[in-house]
Amino acid sequence: MARVVTGSILAGVAAADSYKCPGSAASVHAWSEQTTTIASSCDKVREEIGDRIAGKNGWYDPHNKGQYSVFKASPYGDFELQRKTGDGKFTDKITLEMHSSGDSCVVRGCSESQVTSVVDFSTNFCNIRMLTCGKADGCKSAGFDFGATKITDNKQSLGSSNKMSDCLKVAEEVQDGPRDFSDYSFADFLKEHEKAYEPKELEKRQAIFHSNLAKVVAHNEEYKAGKHTWWATMNHLADFTDDEHRALRATSTYSASQHPVVELTATAPNPPAVDWREKGKVISPVKNQGGCGSCWAFSATETVESHYAIASGKLLTLAPQTYVNCVKNPHQCGGTGGCEGATMELAFNMTRDSGIALEADLPYRGRDEKCAAYKAAVKVTGYVKNPVNDAKALETAVATKGPQAITVAAEPWQLYGGGVFSGCNKPGLFRRKPNIDLDHGVQLVGYTADYWIVRNSWGSFWGEKGYIRISRANDDKLFTDSTPADGVACKPTPKSQTVGGECGILFDTSYPVGVKAAEEAVVV
Fold this sequence. Notes:
By secondary structure, the protein is α+β, with helices and mostly antiparallel strands. The chain has helices at residues 42-54, 121-132, 164-174, 186-192, 199-224, 242-247, 295-312, 320-326, 344-353, 391-400; strands at 30-38, 67-73, 79-84, 91-101, 104-113, 149-156, 230-232, 274-275, 378-379, 382-385, 404-408, 416-421, 440-447, 451-455, 467-471, 478-481, 497-500, 509-513, 516-517.
């Protein structure tokens, strides 16, 4: 089913918001009506829209691969379309009427859905916009590129997104395979990701963009040739400097920890596959840490949320800012604290001692702030470390206990677009450092025989809706991390550490225990 990709989702739908497009028999809740002026002849516009409907030249529908079909067409260029949603449950109706205005074509569109869920509201805007948008809007054409387009008289049901960038982001996140970036420009990138820079900064960002674009195109050509199992994309991180990307990965391995390791004993064979996203309300929506190096805080927060949900049946949205503000890091484990890095285990210890607040009570700021009094919502009695570099033990922990907080080497992940990732443990286009370097805290939510399912904290438009699949082909292999200080190691930092699995995924894994609602009202 289609999704709203902005935060403007209503808690409910008022009956007064029901509507019907001209000529429709029944009122609907979700709809959009808009007029688009395209700087091309109506003959060209009709031909291009027809090609898009037919999916020619790789043009794709953005909403769960739903398919358009022509219900009725007139010789004057009007269309009446139906679009079946990807899950086959709903049918959207779209009408497009065209008339010439000088050298331009004016397309009047109306789209409606027989749905009542607010998560479908933005579908209708995108139904029309994706069929009528031009290259200048960042849209891929099927053959003929529309020139400049202009929307007028736009109206839509309450709760809809009306941003072209949202339509494009949905289109990218659901496609199965790499996006075509052969004609992608820096101006397209800035428009799609809603970025703007001063002239001097613009030049630097443009150079980074073109360097990464060349890598993405080269890698994806090799993917198409069968040389890789994952593809890359020009996401919102594609113009980041190395330092900016490194700042997002401020976690290290806690090798100085004397915490006892617990090896779980499986009473039965582990299931062949586990995905905690499919087990009811256990996993909260994907979060975005912004430019703060708080990945460790997000990993810990998400894992406490999941284990509280498993224990209580209630999924809360907890506050990573609690840890950013208040976790003490005197031995500089994984960094110097806050946005400069720490570890999930330090966060679990603080949750045991002081608890963690709700996001509603302590909103995320994406920066270091003073630790002040807060109302604790959840506490734990401690945490468990899984055996080091043991794939079977980690699998058992995921299957029997729940999602895990893990540390990985994420430098090559920056431009991951989808597929089963491998490449941390060997030189390549996206690996700058000569050795594997554990430096990023994330959450492990499941596995199959072929890959681990990992949740990142770089937003839902990164990777596969905020997730990455990590290959298990190297589960039985060991690698050397010669820069432990970049990961979770504490002072005195060891010279090296031996890590197992793709991206070192098996080395540092843990989960909280005794998770329950906090009794204390306020923590000082």
